[in-house]
Every structure is written in C-alpha cells, then in structure tokens.
Specification:
Belongs to the beta-2-microglobulin family. Its main location: secreted. It is found in: Secreted. The strands form two sheets. Strands 1, 2, 5, 6 and 7 form a five-stranded antiparallel β-sheet that branches. A four-stranded antiparallel β-sheet has the order 4-3-8-9, with no helix packed on it. The chain is elongated. Strand 6 and strand 7 form a beta hairpin. It is 19% helix and 43% strand. The longest helix is centred in the N-terminal third of the chain and has 23 residues. The protein has a single domain, classed as Immunoglobulin-like, CATH 2.60.40. With 119 residues, it is α+β, with helices and mostly antiparallel strands.
Amino acid sequence: MKLFLVSAFLFVSMDLGVSMKEKNEKAPQVQVYSRLPGNFGIKNTLICHTSGFHPPEISIKLLKNGAEMESKQTDLAFEENWHYHLTKHAVFTPEKGETYTCVVSHTTGTKTYNWEPDM
C-alpha cells in the first residue's frame, strides 16, 4: 500500500509540475524598428526588442532576404516580476525590394516579425 501511495504522490506531483511550468511560461512581446526613420539607401540600425517573457531561454535572429545578418545582442536582463528582456541589432542600409525580419524562438513558439520602412 505504501508503494502505491508513493507512486500516486509522485504522479500527481509530476503532473502539477508540468501545469505550474506551463502557467509560468509567457510569450515575448516583440518590437521590430529602426533607429532612424526607414528611408531607402540611408545607413540605419535594425532593432528587434523582446520583453516580458519567461523562461529566459530565447533566440533572436535578424534576417535580410532570409539570410542571417551580422548582429550584436544586449545582455539578458530581467524585470522585478522575473520576466526577461533582450535586444538584438544590426547595422543595415535598406534597399527597395529587400525584406528584413526578426525571428524569435522561445519555449512558447517561433514567430517571424517584419520590419516596415517609413515609406
């Protein structure tokens, strides 16, 4: 009987652990923008800012026409509610017909966000 109770307790504990983990997950809010107004032919900085997510494991990629751009990333930081934020940026010169995207991969899923010029 003791073995059954221990097994049942472990099963319930494991189930609660999964439920609690799912409740703690929060998808990132994502903003894709440029430092300066988005004008073609003018050097600029493409920025992808993620915030409010948990757990902290996240991947951000900046793409030009589907190819990863050389970029820099800030240090992962957290807010007082233990939600995190992270920013990635790349120097670029937007040209007509090119597409610039930010791909964010998190435990809550992978999503693609497009940058739109100010035209």
